[in-house]
Design goal:
The protein is mostly beta strands. Helix content is about 15%, strand content about 35%. It contains four helices and ten strands. It has a ten-stranded antiparallel beta sheet with strand order 3-2-1-10-9-8-7-6-5-4, sandwiched between helices. A hairpin with an 8-residue loop joins strand 5 and strand 6.
Length: about 290
């Protein structure tokens, strides 16, 4: 049984983290104080590792076409924002410590996104050693990747429905049709809100024909990404996490990666339709805690 299939069974049997209530507007958060809290847990119904739930209530192809169109809109909307991005690598093995890097993710006039350090990196790591350059590779992990120009590269399998907090979602397994030496494709599962027909959570890895390590000391390969609803219209990725182990046997070190995006502000390239609700547009759902 594949790693993805095993994970699907585990995800269906345990509490997954997500807070996407889609109501209200929260203000700016302080991302630099205290531990970066995980998303809240919620109860889910157990599903078999190879579920046969029958067809979805609306045609599968309609769901796929709708969420890919919403991904197009989300990618365009994301490009109209600058935001603070905090990256933390935490040692969960004793004695443990953490590395924290904070920067601003912003769009240049030519439309390319850039990450600029806004405060010196801080570390209390006891078992490993990281620099800012070590974690910069994390910034290359794509967060919106199933757009209308990409879905033709994948096979989709409908797995059923699942409740995530106040959302009911359709679950799809996503696998690339072919692999490529020059680019990576998503291999995992996605959760699609049954109301907006938009992706609200993803879990999986990015694969290619060649194994491309993220760094000698960064073992992370499986990523959970959570979305928040902006202006009650766009589901944008704001929280990513990954757990993995460095080393082998009794010498294994348990590491956790958390990337949190906060303090969203319209940038100079923002289109008026995206920023009419507020001059300091904020997500309209509670953030993961």
């Amino acid at each position: 049984m594949s790693e993805i299939t095993n994970k699907m069974a585990v995800l269906a049997a345990i509490a997954i983290a997500l807070s996407l209530t889609g109501a209200g507007v929260f203000g700016a958060q302080d991302t630099n104080q205290g531990p970066m809290a995980p998303p809240p847990t919620f109860k889910v119904h157990r599903m078999p590792s190879e579920p046969h739930p029958g067809p979805p209530p609306i045609p599968q192809e309609q769901i796929i076409q709708s969420f890919s169109a919403n991904e197009d809109a989300a990618r365009k909307a994301l490009d109209t924002y600058d935001f603070t991005q905090t990256i933390r690598v935490e040692e969960l093995s004793e004695p443990g410590g953490k590395f924290t890097a904070v920067g601003e993710s912003y769009v240049k006039p030519d439309g390319t996104r850039f990450w600029r350090v806004t405060k010196p990196a801080e570390t209390t790591l006891k078992l490993t050693k990281y620099s800012l350059e070590d974690v910069r590779t994390i910034l290359n992990i794509p967060s919106i990747f199933l757009t209308s120009d990409e879905i033709g590269n994948y096979n989709f399998t409908y797995l059923g429905q699942q409740k995530l907090d106040e959302l009911n979602t359709y679950i799809f397994q996503v696998k690339p049709k072919t692999l490529n030496r020059t680019r990576r494709f998503f291999d995992g599962i996605v959760y699609v809100d049954d109301h907006d027909l938009a992706i609200v959570e993803t879990y999986g890895k990015f694969v290619s024909e060649m194994t491309t390590p993220t760094g000698a000391q960064l073992p992370f390969s499986m990523f959970e990404m959570y979305r928040e609803n902006f202006q009650q219209k766009y589901w944008l990725p704001t929280y990513m996490s990954s757990d993995d182990y460095l080393g082998s046997g009794d010498e294994q070190i348990h590491l956790r990666l958390v990337v949190r995006d906060t303090d969203f502000k319209p940038n100079a390239q923002a289109v008026p339709a995206v920023t009419t609700q507020s001059q300091t547009a904020q997500p309209s759902s509670e953030p993961p805690r």
